[in-house]
Design brief:
single chain, about 190 residues, alpha+beta, Helix Hairpins, minor pseudopilin epsh fold, 2 domains, binds fe (ii) ion, EC 1.15.1.1
């Protein structure tokens, strides 16, 4: 990823959303809440409140940075790879679908690999602006920030050199534990 891209999304985007959100919720009841709770409360079942955009963009950017590591890329292994093979046919098919979602998201937004709770499988999604899987009812496993410029090269660099499949694997474990916890609590 180029220095310009990193500085733009870290120094301008992410920082701007944090500062704006902090100003926006200061002194309101949202001020005491966790970022996830602010996102769910301000999404307001689709009747979106002003703080949603900033809160979700902060979360999305954080999740995006944590989807990468130096010397990333390569292939996942273990259970993650088994589920990818089960749900997409092959790792290469997942990559193709993820690239397609990232390159066809109109305007700015995000492409995601998620664990869909209802369908009980891994799914690729794209979302516009700040919308994220937390409000769509699935567990996010991986994301890439997509916007106008130089998309094909940027997407390939992300997948070939930066993506942390370890992070995706541990998110999958956490998602499964959470789903199990909820179904046990329901019994
Ligand atoms: Fe960004």
């Amino acid at each position: 990823m180029s220095k310009e891209t990193l500085e733009y999304h870290w120094g301008k985007h992410h920082r701007g959303y944090v500062n704006n959100l902090n100003k926006q919720i200061e002194g309101t009841e949202l001020d005491e809440k966790s970022l996830e709770s602010i996102i769910l409360a301000s999404y307001n079942n689709g009747d979106i409140l002003p703080s949603f955009n900033n809160a979700a963009q902060v979360w999305n950017h954080e999740f995006f940075w944590e989807s990468m590591k130096p010397g990333g890329g390569g292939k996942p292994s273990g259970e993650l790879l088994e589920l990818i093979n089960r749900d997409f046919g092959s790792f290469e098919a997942l990559i193709q679908e993820f690239k397609l979602a990232a390159s066809t998201q109109f305007g700015s937004g995000w492409a995601w690999l998620v664990n869909d709770i209802d369908e009980k499988k891994l799914v690729v999604l794209k979302s516009s602006n700040a919308i994220n899987p937390l409000v769509l009812g699935s567990y996010p496993l991986l994301t890439i920030d997509v916007w106008e410029n130089l998309r094909p090269d940027y997407i390939s660099t992300f997948l070939d050199k930066l993506v942390s499949w370890d992070a995706v694997s541990s998110r999958l474990k956490a998602a499964k534990a959470s789903i199990e916890g909820k179904s046990n609590a329901g019994n």
